[in-house]
Amino acid sequence: MKIQNRHLPAMFAIGLTTTLALSACGDGFEDDEANGNAEDATSAEGEASLVMLIATSGEAETAAVEAATDAWAEETGNEVEVRVASDMDQELAQGFAGGNPPDIFYLDASQVAQQATTGNLYAYEAEDNDDFFPALRDAFTYDDTQWCAPKDFSTLALQINTEKWEEAGLTDDDIPTTYEELSDVAATLDEGDSAGLVISPETDRVGAFVVGHGGWWLNEDATEPTGTSDEVIAGLEYVQENMEEGHFVHAGDVDAGWGGEAFGTEAAAMTIEGNWIRGAMSSDYPDVDYTVVEMPEGPEGPGTLLFTQCWGVASESEAQAEAVDLVNHLTTPEQQLEFAEAFGVMPSRESATDDYTEAFPEDEAFIAGGDYGRGPINAPDMTQVVADLNSQLEGLRSANIEQMMESFDTNASAVLEQ
Amino acid sequence: MKSRDPQRQEGAGWLFVAPAIIVLGLFLIAPIGMALWVSLSDWSGRGSPISTEVNFVGTENYSALLAEPGLARQDLMISFRNTFYYVIGVVPLQTALALSLAVLVNGRFLRGRTFFRTAFYFPSVVSSVAISLLFLFLFAGSGAINNVLAWFGVNGPNWFQDSRGLIHILGDAVGIWSIADPPGWMTDPTVMGMSFWQWFSGPSVALSAIMMQVIWTTAGTFMLMFLAALQDLPVEVEEAAIVEGANKWQRFMNVTVPHLRPTILLVVTLGFIGTWQVFDQMYVMTQGGPAKTTLTPAYLSYQAAFTNGNWGQGAAIAFILFALIFILTTVQRWLMRDKYEWAQKKADRRLRRQQRRQHRETVNELQRKAQSS
User: Fold this and answer.
1) Is residue B6 part of a domain?
2) Is B13 part of any domain?
3) Chain B residues in contact with A120 (beta carbon < 8 A)
4) Helix, strand, coil percentages, rounded to 5, for chain A
5) Where is the signal peptide (chain A) (predicted)?
C-alpha cells in the first residue's frame, strides 16, 4: 500500500503517456483537408488497393458486387476488398474516428448532410452525371454540392391484393388515381378481419401524402422547418381521418411489424411500401397474388417518396481517383441492369430505365416514381428530430396534429439554427 | 553504494506490476480519460478526439442533456423514466426468483438435482442476443404467448408494438382515467420537459415483455450465487432450529435469509448496476420503440454517438449514467446495511472517542499536577 501511494504520480505519468501516445497515433491525417473537385483527388502510386464497405441485403447482393468489383480490378490492375458490414452506421463511424475509413461505401441519402458537414466525404461526380434522375441528384446535394453518385433507388407505390380486390367486385377501372378514390376503395375493401389499407405511420410512408398535398417537412433550402404549414397538416389529416374511420390501419394494429407483413398475412387488402416488398412477398408469402400501381395523385399532383443510396468516397481515402473510376464502372447502365437482375434494385440512370421496364414490366409503378418522388430529409443533425416525429406519428390516429408539428418545428429549428 | 534494505527491491516490484499497469492503463484509464474529454468537447467523430481541430466546450453537452429544454433532455428523461420502472420491476423479482430456485434445488431430497440446476442456469449461458430473438417470436402479435393466452380467453396485446404504460392501463381499467383522454391535472404541469402523465405511465407493455425475459435469463446466474451461500449454511444451525420447534417457513425467514444477507446485498447491487445499464435487448429487439418506451440511457448513448453523430452528448450520457448508478448504489447499500453491525460500529467509535477524551484528560491533569508542584 505504502509503495503504491508513494508512486501514484508515476502511475499517472504512465497513464498520461499512454493517452499522449494514443493521440499521436491519430495525428497523421489532420492536414490533408479534402474537398471538391477531381483535380485534387488523391491517387495511389502504382496499383491501388481499395476497401469497400457495403450493407448487403443478402448473399446475392454480395456476390454481384464482388463480381463487378473483381471485373474492374482485373481490368485496371487494382485491388478491391469488399467488406460486408453488419452494422453500417457503427462500422463507418469507427472507420472515420480511427482515420482509416473504407475508401468507398454505401451511403444513405439521409446521412449525406451529416457526413458532409463533418468533412468525411470526398465530393465527386461520376461520368455523365446528368443521366442520373434529377431527384436522386438532389437527394445527394447538400450545400450546393453533389457529394456522390447515386447507386440505385426505391420508391413507394400502392400494392393491391388481387383476390380481395376481385372479391370486392372491383375492376381495373377502380384503381385509385386520387386520394378520394383511395379512401373509397379502402372503405370498400375494409371487411371483417381484413382492413382496407395498412400503413406504417412514420415519416417515410406518411410523407408521401404530405408531398401529394404539396408540402414538405422543411423548406426548399432545408434551413427552416415547415411542419405547421397547411400542406403538411392537410397531408397528415388525410391519413388521420382515414384511420379514424378504420379503413387505414397501423401495422401494429393488425399484429404485424410492418406493412409488408400485414399485407402478406392478408390482414389488409392494400399497403404502401417500396420495391423491397417484392423480396419479402416471394420468400415469405409466395401464395399471395398482388399488383403494384403508382401512388394516387394528391390535390397538388403525384406524390411519392424515394429512398436511395450512393457510392460514398471517403475524404481520407488515399486512392480517390481510383475509387471514382470504380464508381464509374459500377454505375454504367449495363452494370446497373446486372445489379437489378441479381438483387432487385432499380437503376439510378435514366438511360437504363427503358431496358429495366422491359425486363421487369411489373415494376413500372416503382420506377415511375423516379420522376416525381421526393428524397429524404437532407440536413445535418436531423436524425433525432425525425426519430421523435416518428415516435409521435405512431399515435397519429388520436394525435393532436397541430401540437405534434409544433413540437417538430421547435426541435428542428433548434438543430437547423446551429 | 549506500546501504539499503535488502527487502526493498523496487525495480523488481515495478517489473512485476508493470503488465497490470500497462493493461489497465491502456484499456481502462486511457479510454475513460478519452471519453471524459470527448464529453467535454465538440468532437465530430472524425479523426482523433485529441487533435487541434477539436474544441473544449466545457459543460455544454451536459447542460444540453440536463438543463436546457429540448429534444436531448426530453429523450434522456424518457430513458431515465423507462429504466427506473425497469429496475423497480426486474431487481426484486429476479432476486426473489433466484432465491426460490436456489432453495428448491438445494433440497437434499430432490430427485434430479443436477438436472434442475443445469436447466435453471441454462438461460444465463446462452447469448442474450439469441434469447432476445427467441422472445421476439414468442411475444409476436400472433406468437406462442398470445396463443396460450387465447386458450384462457385472453386477447393478448401485440407486445412489442404496444406503447401503453401499465399504470395507465391499470387506471383505465379501474376507471380513474381514460388513456385516450388523460385528465388535465396530469397532462398540464411538466417537470423536465415531461408531464406527470408521462412520468407516471409505468413500464410500457413492450418494456414489460423485455422485463420478463431479463428476469428469466438472469435469475439463473444469481441462483448460483445463492446456492453457493446456501451450501455454506451449517446444518447444525438448522437442526437447532428444528429442535426449537421452528416450522419450515420460520426456519427460512429466521435462519436461511439472515445467513444469506451478504449474498442478497451482492445480488441486489449487481442487479441494480446491470439493469441500469441494459442495452442488448433494446439493440436487438426494439431499438427504443414503440414510441420511445424502451429507450434506455445506454442505448440512447449509443444512438447519440453512432446514429446521430453527436459524440459529445453520447459520452456525456454515459458519465451521467455512471454518476446515477454510483449514487443509487450507495443509497441502496446504506438502506440495506446490517443495522446490528452498523450500530455496533457506531458504538465502537463512540467508545474509542470516549477513551481518547479520557486519555487526554488524564494527561492534562498529570501535566497540571507537574506544573503546580
Assistant:
1) no
2) no
3) 46
4) 50, 20, 30
5) 1-23
Domain annotation covers residue B59: no
Note whether A391 contacts B10, CB cutoff 8 Å.
no
Residues 6+ apart with CB under 8 A from A339: A64, A65, A68, A152, A345, A347
**Contact (CB<8Å) B163/A257:** no
Count structural domains, chain B.
1
The residues, any chain, with a CB within 8 Å of residue B158's CB and separated by 6 or more, are A252, A253, A255, B140, B141
Within the 84-143 window of chain B, which residues sit less than 8 Å (CB to CB) from chain A? 140-142
For chain A, counts of helices (H) and of strands (E): 18, 14
For chain A, the residues whose C-beta falls within 8 A of a C-beta of chain B are 3, 11, 14-15, 18-19, 22-23, 25-27, 29-30, 89-90, 93, 96-97, 99, 114, 118-120, 251-257, 265, 381, 383-385, 387-388, 391-392, 394-395, 398, 411, 414
Residue B371, all three cell numbers: 506544573
Give the domain CATH number at B253. 1.10.3720.10
Are residues A312 and A95 in contact, defined by beta-carbon separation less than 8 angstroms? no
- Listed as own residue / partner, the contacts of B330-336 with beta carbons closer than 8 Å and 24 or more positions apart are B332/B268, B332/B269, B332/B272, B333/B265, B333/B269, B336/B264, B336/B265, B336/B268
Listed residue (A286, A289, A265) closest to A195, CA to CA? A265
CA distance B47 to chain A (A): 5
- Provide long-range contacts, Cβ within 8 A and 24+ apart, for A15-24: A15/B25, A15/B29, A15/B30, A15/B33, A18/B22, A18/B25, A18/B26, A18/B29, A18/B30, A19/B30, A19/B33, A19/B34, A19/B50, A22/B30, A22/B34, A22/B48, A22/B50, A23/B48, A23/B50, A23/B51
DSSP B338-353: -HHHHHHHHHHHHHHH
Cis check for the bond before B262: say yes or no (omega within 30 of 0).
no
- Flag whether B14 is in a domain: no
- Tell me the domains of chain A and their CATH numbers: 43-153+307-372 (3.40.190.10), 155-306+378-416 (3.40.190.10)
Contact B71 A3 (CB under 8 A): no
Q: Do B141 and A256 touch (CB under 8 A)?
A: yes
Can you tell me which residue has the cell 473483381?
A: A70
- Chain A residues touching residue B46 (CB < 8 angstroms): 96-97, 118-120
Give the bridge partners for A191, in sequence order. Answer: A194
pLDDT in tens, chain A (418 residues): 334 444 444 444 444 444 444 444 444 333 333 444 445 777 777 788 899 999 988 888 999 999 999 999 999 999 999 999 988 888 998 899 888 899 999 999 988 998 999 899 999 999 889 999 999 999 999 988 999 999 999 999 999 999 999 999 999 899 999 999 999 999 999 988 889 999 988 899 999 999 999 999 999 888 899 999 999 999 999 999 999 998 999 888 888 888 998 999 999 999 999 988 988 898 889 999 999 999 999 999 999 999 999 999 999 998 999 999 999 999 999 999 999 988 888 999 999 999 999 999 888 899 999 899 999 988 888 888 999 999 999 889 888 999 999 999 999 998 888 7
Contacts of A414 in chain B (CB under 8 A): 70-71
| Domain membership of residue B250 as a residue range | 64-165+202-337
Residue among A26, A96, A388 whose CB faces B50 most closely: A26
Q: Quote the ipTM score.
A: 0.81
Distance from CA of A384 to the nearest CA of B (A): 7
- Residue where the block lists cell 391535472: B185
- Residue pair B27/A15 in contact (Cβ under 8 Å)? The answer is no
Give contacts of A391 with chain B, Cβ < 8 Å.
289-292
Tell me the pTM.
Answer: 0.84
